[in-house]
Design goal:
With 198 residues, this protein is an all-alpha fold. Helices cover 75% and strands 0% of the residues.
Length: 198
């Protein structure tokens, strides 16, 4: 028993006197850079439509609209049957004031997204900026037909009517807006009142 006790004391002493090894820590996790990651992905596989789409989205969030357009054009070349990239292209062209390009892109998007009221509203914006008021009104009317409670489209339709001097039609949109969004209705009412003074 004395031998066992002596052996245990020796082991405890040996463990207590042993050199502590430095703690191992995990190497730092490199910070991810999604833009660089997707740029590398499309460089590796230029036919990866999903990577082009994600890269376009990152460009958009960073206000890099020309780069976004280039990425979306690459994607549409790979997947011409998809409508959403054309929708995003049209929206970006609107931002850049390239309304004819926006119209063409939205029209391509309509092949698969014809039931999307936002597409019709954004197309109407491009038509309006291009001076095509009748087309603007038709697109806004389609947006409202698809979603009758779409306050933005109703406001825009009221404004398009005012461009043509159709105040009673604008008032009709104002009355419809009162049931949907009073704030937007009041904004349209102010525009109608401005039209009376001019």
């Amino acid at each position: 028993m004395a031998r066992v006790l002596a052996l245990l004391i020796t082991l405890v002493f040996a463990v207590a006197c042993s050199e502590e090894s430095p703690r191992r820590t995990a190497p730092p996790v490199p910070q991810s850079n999604p833009m660089a990651d997707f740029q590398a992905e499309v460089a590796k596989d230029p036919k990866n439509a999903d990577a082009w789409f994600h890269l376009a989205d990152i460009y958009e969030r960073n206000g890099m609209y020309r780069e976004e357009i280039d990425a979306l054009l690459k994607m549409t070349a790979l997947t011409p049957e998809q409508g959403y990239p054309y929708f995003k292209l049209g929206t970006t062209y609107n931002r850049l004031g390239q309304f004819d390009d926006a119209i063409k892109s939205f029209q391509k998007a309509k092949r698969t997204l014809s039931k999307n009221p936002m597409l019709h509203n954004n197309l109407a914006y491009a038509y309006g900026k291009a001076g095509r008021i009748n087309d603007e009104i038709a697109s806004l009317s389609e947006a409202i037909k698809l979603r009758p409670s779409y306050a933005t489209a109703r406001f825009n339709l009221g404004m398009a009517y005012l461009k043509q001097g159709r105040k009673e039609d604008a008032r009709r949109e104002y009355r419809a807006l009162l049931k949907i969004d009073e704030g937007v209705a009041q904004s349209l009412s102010k525009e109608i009142e401005k039209g009376k003074r001019t």
